[in-house]
Write a structure and sequence with these properties.
14 strands; 4-stranded mixed sheet; about 350 residues; Translation Initiation Factor IF3; Rossmann fold; globular; binds magnesium ion; alpha/beta; 6-stranded mixed sheet; binds adenosine-5'-triphosphate
Amino acid sequence: MKTVNTPKKLDSLKPEKVIDLRQAICPHPLNVIRDTLRDLQENDVLLAVSDHEPTALENAPRFCERRGYPFRTVEQEGVWNIFIQKVEERDARLKVENVSKSFHSGDGKVSVLNDINLTIRDGEFVTIVGSSGCGKSTLLNLIAGLEKPTSGQIFANGKRVEGPGSDRVVVFQEGALFPWLTVRENVEFGLKLRKVAPKIRREMAQDYLKLVGLTENFHDASVHQLSGGMKQRVALARALVMEPAILLMDEPFAALDIQTRESLQDELQRIWVESHKTIIFVTHHVEEAVILGDRVLVFAKNPGRIKSEHEIDIERPRQPGHPEVFLYTKWITDEIRENGEAVNDVQEAAG
Ligand SMILES: Nc1ncnc2c1ncn2[C@@H]1O[C@H](COP(=O)(O)OP(=O)(O)OP(=O)(O)O)[C@@H](O)[C@H]1O
Ligand SMILES: [Mg+2]
């Protein structure tokens, strides 16, 4: 077992908190670790006691490495003690701090989001599920700088979000392409506004269209000649060409048929690996959220809030119908059901 940068305090092996994960099956032990760490102070040590699968033993080291938590494991008579130290999330790409949002309606104020706190690390893929109207798009709009929080603040790339910026780009459900421009012109549009030289922007558009898998004979096509899936590929290329650090995706595959959706899920996993983006992806499909996310956030409504978070520790690339994908999808869907949320709104599987 690998040990990373064990700081001094970990060596003294005096945990502030102990959790026993033996026989823990559901909720997933990593979620217990995550939830416990959240309540600890910086540098506090958590001891997770584990035996064998399906406890945290196999997955905790990967979880700790990915999150930057120093850890150490010690075996005593078949029982593993996993010491994890909480450290400040120094390389957070996005921080949402105590954000609430309300809108004025005819008969007063409607609270849409209530006290949202969220830290997303560089290169993390976070998916959000929740029933209609729980504020998912509102949160993306706040991060994109298209709306302002009623209270709280958002930091992206170390700077407070005061408005839209090319470091955060949104891909919408309908792609929102300009119908009077060709595919290539759509992709070049933002670069043109940025006054990038024609030759360079042409090359960049070409590269990103290739990355999203759109063959060259469609680069000069007009938008109405494209299928729904191709339009979403162009929308993705148009977002990626701006080279944003954070990609915000609001149900981008919702209007597509099941085969197209699955092939785009596949492509997006590959693009994410190749482009090292930080992605926040909203969907109604729990299975899609599980296939794509390092972490799935479940939203609840009235007022909109983060109800729970689930670490998805499954090897990539992930496919629909894979037993572990199925299991996580079921856990999360059952939890949404228990919350009394409208399950019709949040679909278990794509299609
Ligand atoms: N500009 C606005 N003015 C007033 N109310 C708004 C505004 N934008 C959103 N809302 C309200 O906020 C609530 C949350 O909307 P939002 O679009 O964020 O939900 P959502 O979770 O994205 O839903 P869906 O899954 O249907 O897309 C809704 O009740 C909506 O009517
Ligand atoms: Mg929405």
